[in-house]
Write a structure and sequence with these properties.
heterodimer, A: alpha+beta, Rossmann fold, OB fold (Dihydrolipoamide Acetyltransferase, E2P), 2 domains, six-stranded mixed sheet, five-stranded antiparallel sheet, 9 helices, B: mainly alpha, MetI-like fold, 14 helices, 0% strand, globular
Chain lengths: 354, 293
């Protein structure tokens, strides 16, 4: 049975449509990530699950209970905010205990819970401090502690790592993952960071302009992106696109015949589109003795990998090579790839073919 | 300090500094002069005053004028000094300031964090109250006080000051609360806190700066008010400002400047005291919007 079900969620502010019919169901214990660019409606959707915002139409169920019209406090959820929203006037211990206190949990039990949660997050030594005296990472932990203390049915995270520096972000990301593995609380997590989405999620919902473009496991989304937008959004450096025309059974880009698999050829037979986009992930293209000719125009070493920008007659292509590459800017190179790793999208509707 | 380090910048061009300092001292002296004259006069005897040396230091400083102003100077036909007026003002100012501040905080909390349809309109209408001339309310208010049966009493005056103060206290608190992060309130809602619990446990404890500003503002306004004090009170409920006016206007054979000055000081001291005690919060509160956090 689903732990959280969103059915046909719409949200309008006057004439602007923020959400245009969202249908998602989250299994118990699942970690769902809503990802998308700013303004895609992901945070609004999270607010509506939290009960901080009203739906224009559509229903929200937590378990079997319809919570659409219930206030936040009756939904049995806990949320970690982007700004952490710790109560500045209370100590860390009081912050963690506040939700329990409001729910009239006896004091002894409250203290025990605070102890337990603090030990789990390694903040026992901070319990008597005020939030103003904590570092960013510590505040983040306290915010998580406050959410954990209540043992809610549902955890909501609203871009919880975006206020941390890069190193701490990676650390806290790992901790959130460990925490979820330990507690197995159903979680909905909003982020605009595709790496966070890929590393944390059981399933990802990629959103744009108030719609879910694709909902699937990180592997599905990476390997078979449903639209050009999803393909571009997930993966770094971003996917390369060549604008291609049909030529007979196959496809060509500026006179270059592109390699295709049997399956592609079959899919193309049923496809009316005349111009298409041929997508290649940087990690699937390699330098070779022959293939698509081009000129090396930029080299960006990152250590383990080196990103190469190759100028071809068909357009710019970025490839990801091993770090120990010997090459110089200006070299004439040839590019090769396995046709199975390519992606095809319609030029007009931007949807995946095959 | 070692020889190699350059001298601090503030010493490098001293004449700039001295000029600035001199100008500041001049202005300070200019504004402090009346206070000095009031104080020194109040400690002089009538004998000394007749010599006409207004700026001189008192020869034999004494508290006689203060004692007379407090307990035996004549205000009209009654000669018991400012004492009863002072007590009236104190009895009036404490509940009036407390009520108007608390109601302002509550209004501000609702108008900033619990918006409802028409709350902006309600706030705009309330703003009218800030700019409304006091004279406009005199007649309708005396009618209302009559209906409520609290005309010509301290209670009536308290009521008037509370009502008249709410627009500005609401404005103060509402603008301050706009700076409180929305997520704080949302987090409290998710934690299960009610409207009142959020107000009492989270919003009020974070209000110290604006609370102090409002307290000072309301205290000064209400303590110094003359118009309402004269219009809405009876013979035994007049505030200190009215007492001071009556004292200064009661004609006797000689004008006792030292008593007048002492009386004026007595009337002004409480606001001065409040400002000295809480002034640093006042400045901090006024700039609180600029540096959040």
């Amino acid at each position: 049975m689903a732990a959280l079900t969103l059915s046909q969620i719409h949200k309008r502010f006057g004439a602007t449509e923020i959400l245009r019919g969202i249908d998602i169901s989250v299994e118990a214990g699942e970690f769902l990530i809503l990802v998308g660019p700013s303004g895609c409606g992901k945070s609004t959707l999270l607010s509506m699950i939290a009960g901080l915002d009203q739906t224009t139409s559509g229903r929200i169920h937590i378990g079997e209970r319809d919570v659409t019209d219930l206030p936040s406090k009756d939904r049995d959820i806990a949320m970690v905010f982007q700004s952490y929203a710790l109560y500045p006037n209370m100590t860390v211990g009081q912050n963690i205990a506040f939700g329990l206190e409001m729910r009239k949990v006896p004091k002894a039990e409250r203290l025990a819970t605070v102890e337990r949660v603090a030990r789990m997050l390694q903040i026992s030594h901070l319990l008597t401090r005020k939030p103003g005296q904590l570092s960013g990472g510590q505040r983040q932990r306290v915010a998580m502690g406050r959410a954990l203390a209540r043992e809610p049915k549902l955890f909501l995270f609203d871009e919880p790592l975006s206020n941390l520096d890069a190193k701490l972000r990676v650390e806290m990301r790992a901790e959130i993952k460990l925490l979820h593995q330990r507690t197995r609380t159903t979680t909905v997590y909003v982020t605009h960071d595709q790496v966070e989405a890929m590393t944390l999620a059981d399933r990802i919902a990629v959103m744009k302009e108030g719609r879910v473009l694709q909902l699937g496991t990180p592997q599905e989304i990476y390997a078979r992106p449903a639209t050009r937008f999803v393909a571009e959004f997930i993966g770094s450096p971003t996917m390369n696109f060549l604008s291609v025309q049909r030529s007979g059974q196959g496809l060509s880009a500026q006179g270059f015949e592109l390699p295709l698999t049997e399956a592609w050829t079959a899919a193309l037979r049923n496809c009316p589109a005349a111009t298409l986009l041929y997508g290649l992930r940087p990690e699937h293209v390699r330098l070779a003795a022959e293939g698509l000719p081009g000129n090396l125009s930029m080299i960006e070493p990152t250590g383990p990998d080196t990103y190469l920008t190759v100028q071809t007659a068909q357009g710019k292509i970025i490839i990801r090579s091993p770090g120990d590459l010997q090459a110089r800017v200006g070299d004439a190179v040839h590019l090769q790839w396995d046709p199975q790793s390519a992606h095809l999208f319609g030029e007009d509707d931007q949807l995946r073919i095959g | 300090m070692s020889r190699n380090t350059p001298p601090p910048r503030r010493l490098s061009r001293p004449w700039h500094r001295y000029l600035l300092l001199a100008a500041l001292l001049l202005f300070a002296a200019f504004y402090l002069l009346p206070l000095y004259v009031m104080l020194s006069t109040s400690f002089k005897s009538m004998e000394e005053l007749r010599q006409g040396t207004i700026l001189s230091w008192p020869d034999k400083p004494g508290l006689a004028a203060w004692a007379k102003a407090w307990s035996s100077a004549c205000t009209g036909t009654d000669c018991s000094g400012l004492q009863p007026f002072f007590i009236n003002s104190a009895l009036m100012v404490v509940p009036a300031v407390a009520c108007s501040t608390l109601l302002g905080a509550l209004n501000g909390y609702v108008l900033s964090k619990w918006r409802f349809r028409g709350s902006e309109l309600a706030f705009a209408l309330m703003l009218f109250g800030v700019f409304m001339p006091m004279q406009v309310v005199l007649l309708p208010m005396s009618q209302v006080l009559g209906w409520l049966g609290i005309a010509s009493s301290i209670w009536g005056l308290i009521f008037v000051h509370v009502v008249a103060g709410i627009p500005s206290t609401t404005l103060f608190f509402r603008n301050y609360y706009l700076g409180l992060p929305e997520e704080l309130i949302q987090a409290a809602k998710l934690d299960g806190a009610s409207f009142w619990q959020i107000f009492r446990r989270i919003v009020l404890p974070l209000s110290t700066p604006i609370l102090v500003v409002t307290l000072i503002w309301q205290f000064t306004n209400i303590w110094n008010d003359f118009l309402y004090g004269v219009v809405f009170t009876g013979a035994d409920s007049k505030p200190i400002t009215v007492g001071l006016n009556n004292l200064a206007n009661t004609s006797s054979s000689v004008k006792e400047y030292n008593v007048d000055m002492a009386a004026a000081m007595i009337a002004g001291l409480p606001t001065l005291l409040v400002y000295v005690l809480a002034g640093r919060y006042f400045v901090r509160g006024l700039t609180a919007g600029a540096v959040k956090g």
